Amino acid sequence: MCRSVSWLAIGFLASTAVACGGGTEVIAPPPPPPAAFLLTFTPDADDAATAAALGWQAGLPGLAVSLAPTDSSRPAQLFTTSAAGTVAIAGLPAGDYIVEASRWLTGGDRAKLAGTDDAIGFITRTPVRIGTSGSLILSVPASRRRSLVISEWAFNGTSTTDGSAYFFGGYLELFNNSDSTIYLDGLVVGRGVSWDYDHSPLSCSLFRPFSEDPAGVWSLEMQAFPGTGRDHPLAPGHTAVVATDAIDHRPLIPSGLDLRAADFEFVGPADADNPAVPNMVDVGFDALAALQGHGLYFPPLGQVAYVARALDYPSLTLARMPGTSDERSPRVPRERILDVAVIRTNYDAGVPECPRTVDAVFDHGAGFRGRGPAGRSEETWAVARRRIPDGIFSQPVLQDSRSSSTDLIRQPRSPGTQQD
């Protein structure tokens, strides 16, 4: 008859053979739980008031989290943050991952916010390094409705049938992300200072006073919308397409678009003008326009596009940008900026890349890496703003978390329409 063994004794005899009826039984202790890596998602400091109104100061609950290897070697793993804003990850191989996290506010959530608070959710997309144990705190900015945003940027250059470079078939699309009509009259769009690579004599440090200035966005070219105040209304959920040249580009380049239906066109001294489309206004601060004469466009490599409220031009601070001949580059003050899109290139120049092209107050990340080298591999693609899920609002609403790497995607060109 086999004697009973007390539970206390089992712990002591875990590795001892116990004879019973001529057999041997080994009783082992349970294995320790696997080590976990703890991710904590907290609200961005700029959105502290929104988080406090929701009671989420310590962590963001209910975020849908996706964790995918940067090399796409395995499918993404899906998680949901706890009430404290945490996710414990066990058994995942250590390595580099892309984490995407989002929570869109419900009507009940938004009812808790102050009347002027236009937050619609919290969202981020960022690279992380996950270990077999340890922890990491990720700051998640709020996405807001704001007002006018850049919804599509399509300036990937190409070449004509005879091989000449062609940069004038592009457009910038703006979207009214608010719930009321916006009048475009006097608003400004432009190309900010952008320097991608660290090489002598035009180094990153030479451009840093301009590319990392929290007081504003330094501009190479800008043009304003025409009108005297209420001539050009833009309804909520509607777009305005501004073409470099509002012409039919199909006879000129194989992938050309017919942009004769654009809402506005940029203007320059060597312009191909469409008299049926209102011209933008050259306000006299185009440091590089004379190089091509077609008005605003975006050459190859990385770029900064911005849209701003009407400006008091005589009061703007001016500077001479490296590589230009005179003080024709103004700083657009931070309080006048409505939106900034930072577009980085995938081109490998063989030298280090500059870490930023605008300060973090305008773009939390280092920009959206969605532009390939100029050429026919990219000419039919655009950089567009993501659309939030349908059903939250009665009209389309786009992401605006102040991070181009989170808010922008690469998609086929679609001037005047919003894709998913």
Write structural notes for this entry.
By secondary structure, this protein is mainly beta. The protein folds into two domains: 36-144, Immunoglobulin-like, CATH 2.60.40.1120; 148-412, no CATH class. The protein has helices spanning 7-12, 48-54, 107-111, 204-211, 404-407, and strands at residues 18-20, 23-25, 36-43, 64-69, 77-80, 86-90, 95-104, 119-130, 134-140, 142-144, 148-154, 158-159, 165-166, 171-176, 182-183, 188-192, 216-224, 233-234, 239-243, 264-265, 281-282, 303-308, 318-319, 329-333, 337-345, 368-371, 381-385, 408-412. 39% of the residues are buried.
H/I helix tally: 5
What is the number of beta strands?
A: 28
Q: Low-confidence parts lasting 5 or more residues at pLDDT below 50?
A: 1-20
Q: What is the C-alpha radius of gyration, as a whole number of Å?
A: 27 Å
Judged by helices, strands and strand pairing, the structural class is mainly beta
Structural shape: globular
Query: End-to-end span in angstroms?
Result: 73 Å
Q: What's the mean pLDDT score?
A: 88
What count of domains describes the coordinates?
Answer: 2
Helix content: under 10%
Main sheet specs: 8 strands, mixed
